Structure formats: structure tokens, C-alpha cells
Amino acid sequence: RWVLLTLATSLSLNLILAMTVLTKTDRITTVLMPVTDVRPAATFEVTENAVSPDYLALVARDLLTMVTYNTPTNVDAHRAQLMRYVAPESFGAIEAELVREAQLIKAKHASLLFDVTGYTVNTAEMTVDFTGLRRTLIGKDETARVPMTYRLAFRMKGGRLYLKSIRTLDKKEMP
Questions:
Q1: Virtual CA dihedral for 28, 159, 60, 98, nearest 10 degrees?
Q2: 10 Å Cβ neighbour count for 152?
Q3: How far apart are the two ends of the chain, measured CA to CA in Å?
Q4: Residue 129 and residue 125: Cα distance in Å, rounded?
Q5: Strand pairing category for 110-122 and 30-32
Q6: Among 161, 171, 162, which Cα is nearest to 44's?
Q7: Digits of tens for pLDDT over the chain (175 positions)?
Q8: How far is CA 32 from CA 45, 61, 156, in A?
Q9: In 26-55, which positions are buried (b, 16+ CB within 10 angstroms) versus exposed (e)?
Q10: Maximum Cα–Cα distance for the chain, whole Å?
Q11: 148 phi/psi in degrees, rounded to 5
Q12: DSSP for the chain?
């Protein structure tokens, strides 16, 4: 009798546990605390399909740096590092554009710098717009200084942020 009672109890508990696991719908929230951020108590939230505006801006800023601060010696390393964050459906287009720009930088022995003067985060559309001055240097001489706005668009999949596109905005597209 005890063996049958133990088996029946075990089977009942396993069925209850299985039903609990199958019907569980908790959302997962990951709180990130970057070590490089200087703001006190800076925390960022990432869920399966959304991120906090501060985290989106921080990631966008880091990725923008890989695109806009390049010299002939670091441009390939920056491209390789950036491509690890690109969405699979955007990989070919973004890499082709970065390779084209790398060839120009190497051919002209130029350095590109982008001085950010402001940014706007749109969490609904998962975009970050950076405004500033793009400077081109050849040696120590500045050859161009152009006001520009870069838009980085992202998507979330399974709690991971992917870069969809990087583009410059025309004056009519600027916010």
C-alpha cells in the first residue's frame, strides 16, 4: 500500500509541477549596471522585446564610435567589432557600406572624427539620432567639417539588441 500511495503522490505532484511550468508566463527582466558609466546608480532594463532609453543610447553611442572615429589603421578592427552586433538581415548591406568607406579612408590616408553635440532616443521606433560635426583629417590638417545627423536603428529579439541600420539624415528628415 505504501508503495502505491507513494507512486500515486509522486505522479500527482509531477503533473502539478508540469502544469505549473507549462502555464508560467513570467516576463524576464535583466538589469544591467555598466562599470564605465559615471552617473550614480545608473541601471538599465532589458526585457525580451524592449530596452530602457538610457541603455539604447549607451549601446548606440558605442556602436556609432566604431563607425565615426576611424583611421587607416583601426578601420578594419572597428568594422569587425561592429559586425558582431548587426542583425542578420542587415549584415550584407551594412558590411558593404563599411567596406566601401574603409577603402576610401585607406586610399586617402584620412581620419574621420564625429563630435556629438546632441542625441535623441525614440524607444517606440528603437532609434537613436546623433547630431554633430563630422570632421575629416589628412595628417594634422582638417580638410572638411560637415554638420551631420546619424540615425542608428535597432531591433530586439530574445532579449538581445541588434543593429538594423546606420544612416545619415537629410535636413528634411531631421527631428
A1: 170
A2: 23
A3: 76
A4: 11
A5: unpaired
A6: 161
A7: 899 999 999 999 999 999 888 887 666 666 555 545 555 555 677 777 778 888 888 889 999 999 999 999 999 999 999 999 999 999 999 999 999 999 999 999 999 999 999 999 998 999 999 999 999 998 888 888 999 999 999 998 877 889 999 999 876 555 5
A8: 6, 16, 16
A9: eeeeeeeeeeeeeeeeeebebeeebbbebb
A10: 92
A11: -145, 155
A12: -HHHHHHHHHHHHHHHHHHHHHH--PPP-EEE--SS--STT--EEE-SS-B-HHHHHHHHHHHHHHHHSB-TTTHHHHHHHHGGGB-GGGHHHHHHHHHHHHHHHHHHTEEEEEEEEEEEEETTTTEEEEEEEEEEEETTEEEEEEEEEEEEEEEEETTEEEEEEEEEPPTTT--
Residue owning grid cell 502539478:
16
Say if residues 161 and 87 touch (Cβ distance below 8 Å). no
> All 3 cell numbers of residue 137?
583629417
pTM of the predicted model, to two decimals? Answer: 0.72
Pairing state between β 30-32 and 44-46 = antiparallel
Contact 66, 78 (CB under 8 A): yes
